Amino acid sequence: MTETIDWAEFAASLGAIPTETDRALVRQKSRDFYWYSPVLKQQLRGVSGDIVVAPRDEADVITVMRECVRRSIPITPRGGGTGNYGQAMPLHGGVVLDLIGLNTIHPVFDGVLRVGTGAKLGEIEARCKPLGWELRMFPSTRRTATIGGFVAGGSGGIGSINFGQMREAGTLLGARVVTMEAEPRVLQLRGAEVNRVHHAYGTNGIIVELEIAMAPAQSWLDYAVAFRDFADLARFCDTIARADGIAKRLVTAVDAGGAAYFKPLQEALTPGESVGLFLIATQSCKPFEDALARAGGRIARKLTEAEVEATGAVPAFEFTWNHTTLHALKVDKEITYLQSRFPGPDYLASVAKAMADYGDEVPMHLEFIRVDGEVACAALPLVRYTTEARLRAIIADFESRGITIFDPHTYVLEDGGMKTTDPEQLAFKRHADPLGLLNPGKMRGWDEVSAA
Ligand SMILES: Cc1cc2nc3c(=O)[nH]c(=O)nc-3n(C[C@H](O)[C@H](O)[C@H](O)COP(=O)(O)OP(=O)(O)OC[C@H]3O[C@@H](n4cnc5c(N)ncnc54)[C@H](O)[C@@H]3O)c2cc1C
User: Fold this and answer.
1) Most CB contacts within 10 A, which of 44, 63, 74, 247?
2) Pocket of ligand 1 (CB under 6 A)
3) Atom of ligand 1 nearest to the CA of 77
């Protein structure tokens, strides 16, 4: 797609906008955490863009997009590059658009934050907390991921126990999006319209600014608790998740097989113990600890936010969501994982059955969230990988039990999530990227229509 492009001429057409063509650096910025999946590791090994372009503001983004359309150069947007499925990897080469320069954080007004797409989530929290506000939800990659990458590539995380996932109405309030046209337009999406670009992998517009609803800031205690029996821990998590009077931000259960990989927690754990990770508001620590004692668990580690900061301890949330798999991969390269949701309301029975059937092949990891106001049980179980055929057999078996799988072993947007093309996202792509130059190869619905 890009063999005939004169990259020096293209870079010159961008004037003072910073560019990088060093092969090693471009390759580095063409990667994300795709290697979590042994399947994607094989498929995406050689993928690289041709040039990295780092716009400094919206006007730069418009210039880059105009010059790319003129030459039919594909663009793959990039934030922190922490996506797990090769989302930010340029399958057809071209420009890697590094958006971290668009990082303006405006003051929160009436609980709404207007923020540049490249702002890091950790920076947003650090800036807003002293003013009394915090993010409603963030991925466990808070330190390195950008708000734009989270909206375009993520789904939810810490805070989803209170606010559901990002897709639910009320959190994403506005997005300013630049179109990929000969004369790029800037569109302002509002309310539910933002879902046209949310979790669309940057295939149908470049987000330059977002408006998001914030939550009143609270002071959080960081807990790791230990249980001899995973079933007791899972029940305790369920109790805390449903306890509306206990203010929390994170409810996670990892079985002993997974907990054994948490090197920074080993001193606090006894071999064979399962671990629960929680963020509990300071005001709720007494009722939380009382409930823990009744459930037969014990506190393995308890830190204030200030202590986490001062000691450099790994915060509880960095053992949860996709960080659980990262800790395992640091010890055992053969580990991979699944993303799933157990069918409710009796999800713990379904969890117990899967654990009994798969044993140590699939160490269990649960994340409690809210979906349409109900507590739900998401899961990112580890998998001791042998072959792709075995992995697919486990996925098929989980699905036959009514467990929803969000396949993390594909870079195709639809196959990872809803299994069908979102008609609104496809329609928006027709409008905003008529030549199909944005992150090509990721939206199956578009490729099928173009091929017909
Ligand atoms: C250890 C680990 C833990 C994780 N935990 C979570 C979790 O708890 N919850 C969760 O949802 N995800 C999680 N993830 C996945 C990922 O970290 C998050 O989705 C993160 O928010 C992505 O942000 P990023 O800035 O790194 O985006 P990138 O990886 O750079 O990009 C993600 C996608 O968005 C597109 N994109 C980026 N910026 C823009 C833009 N401005 N306009 C249009 N498209 C754009 C990219 O092309 C790509 O398709 C985890 C990943 C790892 C490795």
Assistant:
1) 74
2) 32-33, 76-84, 87-88, 99, 117, 139-141, 145-146, 148-150, 152-157, 201-202, 206-207, 321-323, 326, 439
3) 47
Last residue of a domain, one of 98, 120, 139: 98
Distance 153 CA to ligand 1 centre (A): 5
Q: Which helix (H) or strand (E) holds 342?
A: strand 340-342
Cα 199 to middle of ligand 1, angstroms: 9
Residues with Cβ within 8 Å of 31's Cβ and at least 6 positions away in sequence, in order, are 47, 81, 89
Q: Which of 62, 322, 413 to mutate to test the pocket of ligand 1 (most atoms within 8 A of CB)?
A: 322
Residue 379: C-alpha distances to residues 157, 234, 324, 398, 409 (Å): 12, 12, 11, 12, 15
Separation of 365 CA from ligand 1 center, angstroms? Answer: 21
End-of-domain residue from the set 98, 113, 145 = 98
Q: Identify whether 452 is part of a domain.
A: no
Residue 190 in any domain: the answer is no
Task: Quote the ligand 1 centre to 154 CA distance (angstroms).
Answer: 5
* Domain assignment of residue 90, given as a range: 7-98
Nearest atom in ligand 1 to the alpha carbon of residue 150 is 21
Give CA torsion, residues 291, 295, 300, 304, to 10 deg.
-10
The Cα–Cα gap between 26 and 374 comes to 44
What is the CA(211)–ligand 1 centre distance, in A?
Answer: 18
| pLDDT tens, per residue, the chain with 452 residues | 688 999 999 999 999 999 999 999 999 999 999 999 999 999 999 999 999 999 999 999 999 999 999 999 999 999 999 999 999 999 999 999 999 999 999 999 999 999 999 999 999 999 999 999 999 999 999 999 999 999 999 999 999 999 999 999 999 999 999 999 999 999 999 999 999 999 999 999 999 999 999 999 999 999 999 999 999 999 999 999 999 999 999 999 999 999 999 999 999 999 999 999 999 999 999 999 999 999 999 999 999 999 999 999 999 999 999 999 999 999 999 999 999 999 988 999 999 999 999 999 999 999 999 999 999 999 999 999 999 999 999 999 999 999 999 999 999 999 987 778 899 999 999 999 999 999 999 999 998 888 77
Decide if 450 is inside a domain.
Answer: no
The CATH number of the domain where 18 resides is what? 3.30.43.10
The verdict on residue 153 lying in a domain is no
- Closest protein CA for atom 4 of ligand 1: 322
Task: For residue 310, give every residue at least 6 positions away whose Cβ sits within 8 Å of its Cβ, in sequence order, or none.
Answer: none
Q: Which atom of ligand 1 is nearest to the CA of 208?
A: 41
The tally of CA atoms less than 13 A away on the side-chain side of residue 287 is 13
Dig out the tokens for 256 from the structure: 């002993």
